[in-house]
Structures are given as C-alpha cells and as structure tokens.
Amino acid sequence: MPEYSKFFNPEMEMLTRPEIEALQLQRLQQTVRHCMNSPFYKKRFDEIGLKPEDIRSLDDLRRIPFTTKQDLRDTYPFGIASVPLEKCVRLHSSSGTTGNPTVILHTQKDLEEWANAVARCLWMVGARPEDVFQNTSGYGMFTGGLGFQYGAERLGMLTIPAAAGNSRRQIKFITDFGTTVVHAIPSYATRLFEVMQEEGIDPRRDTKLRILAIGAEPHSDEQRKRIEQMLGVKAYNSFGMSEMCGPGVAFECREQNGMHIWEDYYIVEIVDPDTLEPVPDGEIGELVLTTLNREAMPLLRYRTRDLTRIIPGECPCGRHHKRIDRMKGRSDDMIVLKGVNIFPIQIEEVLMTFKELGSNYLITLETEESNDAMTVEVELDQQHFTDDYGKLQLLTREISRQLHDEILLTPHVKLLPPGSLPVSEGKAVRVKDLRKHFQ
User: Fold this and answer.
1) Which of 369, 263, 189 is nearest to 9 (CA)?
2) Is the pTM of this model over 0.90?
3) 316-353 b/e (C-beta count within 10 Å ≥ 16 → b)
4) Cβ(226)–Cβ(355) under 8 Å?
5) By CB neighbour count within 10 A (0-12 exposed, 13-18 middle, 19+ buried), where does 56 fall?
6) Which of 154, 162, 100 is nearest to 128 (CA)?
7) Peptide bond into 278 cis (omega under 30)
8) Degrees to nearest 5, angle at CA 290 with 287 and 291
9) Residue 280: which of 290, 268, 270, 289 has the closest Cα?
10) Contacts of 117 (CB under 8 A, 6+ apart)
11) CA distance 258 to 232
12) Mean pLDDT of the chain
C-alpha cells in the first residue's frame, strides 16, 4: 500500500486553537455579510438594529438571534436562501410529516465542500483509495446516501451505492466485491450480522470488513462495542444533519474518544435548552451550530435540539478541533414519566451490559388506571437463549433493578425470543407512546 499522509487536508486539520479561532472570525464576518442577501436574515438583523460590521469578535456571535427548524418551515421553501435560485444545483428536504418540510439548498461549491468534509472524516479513521466502500443508506432526499457517496468518491475509493434494505444482497456485495468500509445506522449493522448468521457467514472469516461508519440514530457506547465484536470491525461514530448539509459535520478519529467537529466549517455552541445560556465545557446541553463556508443557505446559530457536550482537553490524534460527545438524545425526544426526565439512550446503556440480551428493544408508554407506565421489551440473544423459567425470572429482576438505579423508576420488563420485535430497514423505532393524556 502506498505511503499516505495522516491528514486528508493538513492545512485545516493541523490548525492550532488560535489559528482556528482567527479563521472562524474571518469566515463568520464573511458569512454574516453574505446573509444580508437573505430576506429572512436581513429582516431579522434590521428588527434588532444589528449590522454586519457589529460582529467584531467571536463573542459577538451571541448578539445574533437563534435560528430554529420552525424558521425554516415558516420561510418554506426558499425564504432563507442567500443566493438566487438559478445559482443552486440541488436541494434536500425533510419528510415534512408534521407540517412544511425543511428545505436546504446547495450551490456546486457547497457540494464540493461537503464532499471534502466527508472525505476528511473517512480518511481520519483509516479509509484509503485502495478500500472498497459500501453505502447502506437511502439515497434521494436523505442526505446520508449522497453525502457519503460523494465523500467516498472524493477520497478515491471504489464505491458501491447499495442503498437501504435487501440485507442478503448487501451481504452478497460485501463478500463478492471485497467491501472493506461500510456506512450503516447502528440498528441496521446489527441486522446485517443477524442475517449473516442465518446465511452461515462469519464476518471475520468470510469478509474483508474493517471499518464501519455509524450514525443517524442515538446509540450507546455499549452498542458500538457490541457491533465491533459481532462484525470484527472498528466502528466510528458520525454526526450530521440535513440542515448542516448532512454527514461530515463531526466524526470520531481512531482514538474513539469523541467526535471532532470541523471548526473551519462550523462554530459550535452548547447552551442550556431552557435558558439558552452557554454551559461550561463538559456539561450536557443543546448543540447550536453556525455554518461558516456555505453559499446557498448559511444558517446562523441553528438550534439542533441534539443534546451533547464538548469534551474538555486535547485529543492524542493531534487535531485541535473541538470534540463533542455522542448524542444523548434530542431535547424533544425526552420522555417525561411520573415527573422524571428519561432519555431512551439511558435504557439502552443498561440493556447492552447484559450478554444474555440481543440488540433489539422497544419502550412502550401506556396509561394504566390513570397512571403512566413503561414497558421495556427486549429480545434475548440467540447464543444465550434459554427457556428456563427460573433463570429468566432472575434475569428479569436484575434488569429491572439496574434500570431503576439508572432512571429512578421501575419499568415492566419483558424478555422475548430472538426475532420477536419488528425490524426496520431505516431508523429503529425505540419508543411507542400510547398514553392517554386527560385535560
């Protein structure tokens, strides 16, 4: 294999903190001036009497109001754009199941920068032109498909745009084409292993898999380690969202100790979701992002609703771009049960510590005699499956005890045979809220 640099883009990846902040201020000032071409931002700045020249330091960012998903819906479809529509070459949008979809426009330069960012992420975890990359994401409006596709091509890998679903075909591609790098959401990576078992395929022996990029749904570190053990790969956490282009916003390096967020592309803030005041590094809060290198639709102080923290300290990999922790969940996905705030990821973290359990689970919230109740259904692991009633009772009690220690409530726990719960080819459905809320 040829000798390659450790960095895909050394000029940007090796920046020191002072250099990063100087570049951010320069790009922030350019971005704010450019945003005055947007009817939305022009009006918003005029309303509060703020001018682009008032942004003289990075601290002045806090003078700019937040942008929200509702703002994107209210200005649907193109009201936030900062360039004429004829300069745009692509749009992506959400499904819009709860109102107007959110629409993000891209110029050709935006797409090129996006591909560079994703290529930088994949290179950071060891992908090289000699690798074969297989993408199991959906294509079309979902950014995970085309985002990883163009990034992998920019890096120089042979790419297999397999798209979502059809697990047996996915596995045939992996074995026949010598796939070494795969992008998949965590629940689907687990599903691929289950189908491999059904087909008598040992991923360690019968495939060349070595790198897995995972993201798009919250998952615990325990789940990641389990996937690594099953498939015989190193699995690296990825973060992206369509409002920020898609994948490529932040990615783990080989140290696997947090996701480097590319600060030449974004300014990251962590704020208290209630007070909207900044929280210290190391504390959980809502992730707020400002784009720094986008033409068509730059966004200023966009509230992502994702909950995470900035990891203090330096990374041994040598990059000085800040690291964010894996997503704890979304502020609007939090379960409130009997006055207790619970995130589904807390339950997963407990379940994944039991070797007797598989990876598929479902949390159901119901009203029982005017009281809210939680049931956690989880499949038993195929290799540890037993129908010994006594052992199952002991296991159920221990799971319940540990869940109570974590979430301060005792849910009903039901252990199910392997394959009992529905399997989704897309993001896994982890919570069903069937509660009846009386006025």
Assistant:
1) 263
2) no
3) ebebbbbbbbbbbbbbebebebeeeebbbbbbbbbbbe
4) no
5) exposed
6) 154
7) no
8) 130
9) 270
10) 151, 245, 248, 249, 262, 265
11) 21
12) 92
Structure tokens at 405: 């220690």
Range list of β-strands (E), 215-325: 234-239, 250-252, 259-261, 266-271, 285-291, 302-308, 310-311, 323-324
Q: 166 in helix, strand or coil?
A: coil
| Per-residue pLDDT tens over the stretch 334-392 | 787 776 778 888 888 899 889 899 888 999 998 876 678 899 999 998 877 777 888 89
Q: What is the pLDDT of residues 272-293, one digit of tens each?
A: 998 999 999 999 999 999 999 9
From CA 195, how far away is CA 14, in angstroms rounded?
42
Q: Which two tokens stand for residue 236?
A: 């690296």
Separation CA 28–CA 401 (nearest Å):
50
Is the confidence at residue 97, as pLDDT, over 80?
Answer: no
Residue 44 has pLDDT above 50, yes or no: yes
The DSSP result for 340-355, as a single string, is EEE-HHHHHHHHTT-T
DSSP state of 222: H
Q: What size, in residues, is the chain? A: 439
Helices (H) and strands (E) in the chain, counts: 12, 21
Helix H segments across 245-367? 344-351
Whole-Å CA distances, 62 to 119, 271, 290, 319: 31, 11, 11, 26
DSSP-H helix ranges across 137-289: 143-155, 167-177, 186-198, 203-206, 221-231
Buried b (16+ CB within 10 A) or exposed e, 246-256: bbbbbbbbeeb
Whole-angstrom distance, CA of residue 82 vs CA of residue 236 = 34
Q: Please report, rounded to a whole number, the percentage of residues in the chain having pLDDT higher than 90.
A: 71
